[in-house]
Design brief:
The complex is a heterodimer of chains A (436) and B (315). By secondary structure, chain A is an alpha+beta fold. Chain A is built from 20 helices and 11 strands. The radius of gyration of chain A is 22 Å and the shape is globular. Chain B is mostly helical. The chains are: A alpha+beta (436), B mainly alpha (315).
């Protein structure tokens, strides 16, 4: 069978339909429902993505890209940057109107310069209709005034990782599901000299994840749905009181931790419980010296607080196309191909539970049941709550997160440097400057 | 022959113009200055001017701003994090500069002695300056780690402390730690520059003073220090400027934490402008550094370079 360039004019990926690729999971390619894009003659693309945390994830993406190039003749150059450097690079590209055609951005980056991004509404709607719809929270990061300015690519799940034997030693046959018994576990572990440790420093991922969970699980919120600052509330103060009690069970020094510190402490056996991406498990699993530790590791979603449901920030990454690209159709064809079931399934599989699907149909990917440690990460897009909740996403939510308002507030109260009331008041003042 | 002579007598207009340019000192000087001037204009004046302009606008990433006058500055006046960053920057600069000067001068005086392996020591001293900042910052990140600090480990093994020192978690410790890391990096620059200055001081002055019965302190106070002061002025001006605008060390070690205790104006400016997307406000913070930097330069030139003081006189 010959696949012509036209066949792959993707939206449809005739490739996948031709069943030349192994089917993974139970999500068949339904790409014929997607809009078609006729790539510009002579097109070539440049993608800027974050450096991989899991090597096999990158390998899968590159393999998919190679298939795209073979099918269409469109060369795709993939550049990598450290994940925290993506934001400034994408920002500069947006401002100067030159740079990579596609970028994998983080959080509300796409909301900072929506006018510079290509409208991908047709493709997003097509993908949503084809693959069971988008999860609402990742979708919120991509939607701007009713149009899609990016495609939600993945939620990088954050979950509790713990040492099972130590939790049992502390008298807990199973990991607590609510914040109250979680605190009791913390106290028991501390008494056994196996303290917990959660990031309270300026760690973009882990610090924000933990502190937003503290706030949201107790019903606190930065602003209300009208964008009015409401962080100084009884719910927030209750959250901060809880944070203080929990902090007393931690290993000392967590207020200085950045994103890497909790991994190091966990792998050195200094802490028994932390929250992290699944990469922490693989760091232990891939090290023969840590085989016993890896076998003892378990994962679970962060406990549910008074708010009554699981609410977490996680990290969200979206793929966007800059308007300045000379090849907008080729870029959309590329994304359409990569989101199509065979490729997306292969990529999710390759990411070893690091990247959680944003389209509901991919929840059946076998990666989620291949190892029990993956299970909580499968729910990342479901438990995800967008930054700046309950207000709109945009420059203000991005600025508030960048200014560490929630992290500083929780750290101030947890370490006892301010009372919960003072910390909430100070956060309110800082937020008010941004949400003017 | 006559033709040749006539030709020689009346050169072409272009050659005549070239000759005038070659002989005119002002025009030639301007021509030689031109490349440097163009370079400065594009790579210094333009970015600086753009930064100042952005500070007066509400430019955000991906959106052109409009002129809003002093609104960014008014907003910063009421921003406690900005004032904390100003305080941190001053503390960091003053603390680190004093230590770098004292230790750098001491090291320079030591290296100026006739020590064995003098050249070797002089080369070794330069290492902290040669190592890229990011690398030394990562080394310090480990040294100051809350769990794995080699300092804490050594002190515990020696029985001097019973738990790890919270270097970067406690606000006071964190400030002291980042200053220490900056001092370690900056000492070689001060020491080697001052050593160069020390070697220009004629030995005969010291010999004459010794014959007159001057003590070591008196020779230092009335010969070494005054003769070194022009170098000190230049070196410390640079040192203060480097320290005041430091970014990498803080960014790697603490990201401005804990609780913004180590946020400098440079790191806050970046945080607000790029991750925060508020380019106008970030630029305003950067521009707010200029008066401090100018003050440091003026103090250095009009204070430390006073001839009367250099000649050993009082104020």
């Amino acid at each position: 069978m010959t696949i012509s360039r036209r066949d792959v004019l993707l939206g449809g990926a005739g490739l996948a339909g031709a069943a030349t690729l192994p089917m993974m999971g139970s999500t068949p390619s339904l790409a014929q429902a997607l809009p078609k894009f006729d790539p510009e003659p002579g097109a070539s693309l440049r993608l800027l993505r974050w450096s991989p945390f899991v090597k096999s994830e990158e390998d899968a993406w590159i393999a998919n890209t190679k298939k795209f190039t073979e099918a269409t003749g469109i060369e795709v150059r993939i550049d990598k940057e450290s994940w925290e450097d993506i934001r400034p690079k994408a920002a500069v590209a947006a401002n100067v109107g030159s740079g990579p055609d596609l970028v994998w951005v983080w959080f509300d980056d796409a909301q900072q310069y929506p006018d510079k991004l290509l409208d991908v509404t047709d493709l997003a709607k097509g993908l949503g209709a084809t693959y069971g719809g988008w999860y609402p929270a990742p979708e919120a990061y991509a939607l701007n005034r009713g149009r899609y300015v990016s495609l939600p690519l993945a939620t990088i799940g954050n979950a509790v990782i713990y040492r099972d034997s130590w939790v049992k030693e502390a008298g807990f046959s199973e990991f607590p599901k609510d914040t109250k018994s979680f605190l009791e576990l913390g106290k028991a572990l501390k008494a056994k000299n196996h303290p917990m440790g959660f990031t309270l420093g300026h760690g973009v991922g882990d610090g924000n994840n933990y502190c937003h969970w503290i706030l949201w699980s107790h019903g606190g919120e930065m602003v209300n749905d009208k964008g009015k600052v409401t962080i100084n509330s009884p719910e927030t103060i209750a959250a901060l009181k809880y944070a203080r009690e929990l902090y007393l069970t931690f290993i000392p020094g967590t207020e200085s931790w950045l994103d890497v510190n909790n991994n190091r402490a966990f792998l050195a056996g200094e802490i028994s419980v932390t929250a992290n991406g699944v990469s922490l498990y693989y760091a232990a699993k891939n090290d023969p010296k840590l085989a016993d530790m890896a076998a003892d590791m378990r994962s679970v979603n962060l406990p549910i607080g008074p708010v009554g449901k699981s609410v977490e920030l996680h990290q969200t990454t979206s793929a966007c196309i800059f308007k300045y690209t000379k090849y907008p159709k080729a870029a959309q064809a590329y994304l359409s191909f990569m989101f199509d079931a065979p490729q997306m399934n292969a990529w999710i599989q390759g990411s070893n539970a690091y990247c959680c699907q944003t389209l509901k149909a991919f929840a059946s990917n076998p990666v989620w049941t291949s190892n029990p440690i993956h299970a909580p990460y499968a729910k990342a897009s479901e438990t995800l709550r967008p930054n700046g909740y309950a207000g709109p996403l945009g420059p203000q939510s991005a600025a508030a997160m960048a200014d560490w308002i929630v992290v500083d507030m929780v750290a101030e109260a947890a370490t006892g440097q301010r009372t919960p009331e003072e910390a909430a008041r100070r956060a309110e003042q800082r937020a008010a400057r941004i949400y003017r | 022959m006559a033709d040749i002579a006539a030709h020689r007598a009346s050169p072409s207009p272009f050659r005549a113009w070239l000759s005038r340019v070659g002989q005119g000192r002002h025009l030639l000087g301007l021509l030689f200055l031109l490349p440097a001037a163009v370079f400065l204009l594009f790579f210094l004046t333009y970015p600086l001017g753009l930064g100042v302009w952005l500070g007066f606008t509400d430019t955000r990433i991906g959106r052109e701003g409009v002129f809003i006058g002093l609104e960014n500055y008014e907003s910063l006046m009421g921003d406690s994090v900005f004032w904390l960053a100003v305080f941190n920057t001053l503390l960091y600069t003053i603390g680190a500069s004093i230590l770098k000067f004292a230790l750098g001068l001491w090291l320079a005086l030591l290296l100026n002695q006739n020590l064995p392996f003098k050249s070797f020591f002089r080369a070794i001293v330069l290492l902290p300056w040669v190592v890229p900042t990011v690398l030394s910052a990562i080394a310090f990140w480990w040294i100051f780690d809350a769990q794995f600090s080699v300092i804490s480990w050594a002190l515990i093994k020696l029985g001097l402390i019973d738990h790890n020192i919270n270097f970067l978690g406690d606000t006071t410790n964190a400030r002291a730690s980042v200053i220490a890391a900056n001092v370690w990096r900056g000492i070689p620059f001060v020491a080697i520059s001052l050593l160069a200055g020390l070697q220009t001081i004629p030995q005969s002055l010291h010999e004459a003073a010794t014959l007159d019965g001057a003590t070591g302190w008196q020779r230092f106070r009335y010969i070494t220090l005054p003769m070194l002061s022009p170098i000190i002025a230049v070196v410390m001006t640079f040192s203060v400027l480097f320290t005041f605008t430091d970014f990498q060390l803080i960014y790697v070690l603490t990201r401005g934490g804990p609780l913004n205790a180590t946020h400098l104006m440079a790191t806050l400016s970046f945080q607000r402008a790029i991750p925060g997307g508020q380019l106008g406000e970030g630029a305003a913070i950067a521009v707010a550094m200029i008066p401090f930097l100018l003050s440091a330069i003026l103090f250095s030139y009009f204070g430390l370079q006073r001839r009367k003081w250099q000649q050993g006189g009082g104020d």
